[in-house]
Specification:
Structural class: alpha+beta
Oligomer: single chain
Low-confidence stretches: none
CATH topology: Trna Endonuclease, Chain: A, domain 1
Radius of gyration: 14 Å
Number of strands: 5
CATH architecture: 3-Layer(aba) Sandwich
Length: 116
């Protein structure tokens, strides 16, 4: 798949994930946050909890199981270290989540996917 098409599908997946999170009571704080150490797809808040979310879009449900790996989560965690202080409230919790998307399936939200 060429880079432009992958980028377009990634944006579509992030938009769908943001809409789904909003319907579940989350407030989207930021999208596609770039840091010197990587990118965070979505940052969302519900109450005092802030989730830094990696969104993965795949062509089939079967491919979703391979979409989430330690290498990618390490990169997200490094990016989160750069900006967590900007989003976390006093006494609030932060975590790294993953949302997996494929055509014809409901989003799969993996809460607290990264635990170093």
């Amino acid at each position: 798949m060429n880079r432009q098409l992958a980028e377009k599908r990634g944006c579509e997946g992030e938009t769908r994930a943001a809409l789904w999170l909003t319907a579940k009571g989350w407030r989207i704080l930021a999208k596609r946050v770039k840091t010197p150490r990587g990118e965070i797809d979505l940052i969302a808040r519900r109450g005092t909890l802030v989730a830094f979310i990696e969104v993965k879009w795949r062509r089939s449900r079967e491919q979703l199981d391979q979409a989430n790996d330690e290498y990618r989560l390490c990169r997200v965690a490094a990016a989160v270290e750069c900006v967590a202080h900007e989003y976390a409230q006093n006494g609030g919790d932060i975590r790294i989540d993953v949302i997996l998307l494929a055509p014809g399936t409901l989003p799969r939200h993996i809460a607290n996917a990264w635990q170093p």
